[in-house]
Design a protein that fits this description.
Largest sheet of chain A: 7 strands, mixed
Radius of gyration of chain A: 21 Å
Number of helices of chain A: 10
Number of domains of chain A: 2
Number of strands of chain A: 13
Oligomer: homodimer
Strand order of the largest sheet of chain A: 8-10-7-11-9-12-13
Structural class of chain A: alpha+beta
Strand content of chain A: 15-25%
CATH topology of the largest domain in chain A: Phosphoribosyl-aminoimidazole Synthetase, Chain A, domain 2
CATH architecture of the largest domain in chain A: Alpha-Beta Complex
Chain lengths: ~350, ~350
């Protein structure tokens, strides 16, 4: 009777398809049937029409050992971040999150006090972003911790921004700066390795508050959604930067049927990130384009709207949407054109950096 | 630097509080802030007011080794069931599911073909129940399989049924029969143990199709929601039977501020379940009240509505709502009154039954 379920006659490794290929593969035969399902798989969030407002739904799963390492992630920060990354998806639709559900599976090595810390972080995020925890599930796991959060938001029909609305000639904008969260992670990983090798050695994390903060306590750009509303700006497309600028730009290009020309000089990099990249012997622009988890917003605007963003703090015009045939390219500071590579999997395979 | 996060100065074991105590504890400081949040934690689903229709949201997480055992759970059934158990929560609100999101974390021992089987089951459930897959997340896990599903439904304000609406004098009704899914699980567990002890022995599962089917391929009672609508019946309270009749009755009693008197003779038990319970030397009524995963509906109706259910197939009147002081009790066939015990954790600790 016992079937060895994971064994199949044909065996294709999951990694062969990559994250996005896998999602495409798995969801290809799921047509939308309900008139209320306006948008299904393939954007930052699903969109449901239940009357006056649109309901926007996004879900994310964080797995111990893949998305976080409890050796350097305080549980409160983990709870906070698990909510924020989902809210970021709702904002990336130009909508406002209103509710979250949180499901947690955890092994018996976690105490109630440990769970309380996670929920403290969840509560802090709910308070700061004014969202309500309205449900969830708490269950056992044979080992490890898994957190699955679903965020539910409200949007207005004419203002929702999808990934497929970019037009040739639109300007590519980035909020905040990118690459810092990735470098923060590399720092934490480096110190973890040092500690594991010689537990007596003090970690060298001083002076790295900014980078580590970007990794452990990201914020979602609610302020930008407010600024858009105040300035009556509706981006033509938008996505949040969870997997890295390169990856997100590919999503927008693919779904909008366009190409993109990114200017290296327009990609915002924090001085601490640039310095740290060099110290790690990494190219800062590579970290900025391929590092993820910054939770900034990448969006495109009609060039006629340029005045609406020009004087807003923290918005950088980083390139232009071009015809599809022109591909997705980076114009370096040196004036060379490089193809930008698409990236996959949301989690990192951290380089083994030593100090 | 490395903090040993799961270690806390005070350490309360999660099991000390029980599932429901833990949920109460964790969610006690989450007031609802948004006017659109009509109902938060504590019912089958959350209720959100986004305009004309109400949006009903439920989420559940299934963990390998806790909620399912891949040794006897076909992956397609697992995918099907993971959707159905969430739809059941939406129906238990007297609402209709319209969308689902599915997040899956899995280790590299699973192939794309294995994932395809899970999604085949998900697709079959989506088609049968006419719901749309609108999002989700696919990610790695260091080991094991975790599936988290969120169902989103549509309801009408005056017809949603909560757990807190039961009134003294209301009749307690149960759809279908209960206890069979639990006994199906016991059969599968028994054969697994036999197989592990002597892999050559053929499993004795013949003749047990009904019980095993109730465990591996449960259905949600959409037909009952249709029948309610047709007969213009709105239950005064409702809950789906995932943890067992006893547990669900406690939820309704606690949240409605009432007691309940259940008649043993009114609790529907399938003949196969009764027979199998006796073979296992278990009391059939105990299996019926404490076994879970039947995904039938437990609901209460105003006695004036009794004609509306009397002639419906598959609805059993199993007792009456009584004043709170009278407690939650079972009137046995022998005429004795027993306190019904509250149950916890949704997953089972299967008795080690041998044949």
């Amino acid at each position: 009777m016992p079937q060895d379920s994971p064994q199949q006659p044909q065996r294709t490794d999951v990694n062969e398809l990559g994250e996005f290929g896998l999602i495409d593969h798995l969801t290809q035969n799921f047509p939308l049937r309900n008139p209320s399902s306006l948008k299904g798989v393939g954007d930052d969030a699903a969109v449901i029409d239940n009357g006056k407002f649109l309901t926007v739904v996004s879900t994310d799963m964080l797995v111990e050992g893949i998305h976080f390492d409890l050796m350097y992630t305080p549980l409160k920060h983990l709870g906070y971040k698990s909510v924020v990354v989902n809210l970021s998806d709702i904002y990336a639709m130009n909508a406002r999150p209103k509710q979250v559900t949180v499901s947690i599976a955890l092994s018996n090595r976690f105490s109630v006090e440990a769970l309380d810390e996670i929920y403290d972080g969840i509560r802090t995020a709910c308070e700061y972003y004014k969202v309500d925890l309205v449900g969830g599930d708490t269950t056992s796991s044979p080992r490890g911790l898994v957190i699955s959060v679903t965020a539910i938001g409200q949007g207005v029909k004419d203002k929702l921004t999808y990934r497929n609305g970019a037009k040739v000639g639109d300007l590519i904008c980035i909020t905040g700066n990118v690459g810092a969260a990735y470098l923060g992670l590399q720092l934490l990983e480096r110190e973890k390795q040092v500690y594991l090798a010689s537990p007596g050695v003090q970690p060298e994390l001083e002076g790295h508050d900014y980078l580590i903060g970007r990794q452990l306590k990201p914020e979602a750009r609610r302020d930008m959604i407010d600024a858009f509303e105040k300035n009556e700006l509706v981006p033509t497309s938008m996505i949040d930067i969870s997997d890295g600028v390169a990856s997100e730009l590919f999503h927008i290009s693919k779904q909008s049927g366009v190409g993109a020309l990114l200017e290296e000089s327009g990609v915002p990099i924090h001085p601490d990130a640039a310095m740290q990249a060099l110290e790690f012997k990494l190219d800062p622009i590579t970290c900025a384009l391929s590092g993820g988890e910054d939770y900034e917003l990448l969006f495109t605007i009609n060039p006629n709207d340029v005045d609406k963003v020009k004087y807003l703090p923290d918005i950088y015009i980083a390139g232009e949407i071009v015809p599809k045939e022109d591909g997705v390219k980076l114009n370096t500071k040196g004036g060379n054109l490089h193809d930008i590579q698409a990236q996959g999997w949301r989690h990192f395979d951290p380089s083994k950096l030593v100090r």
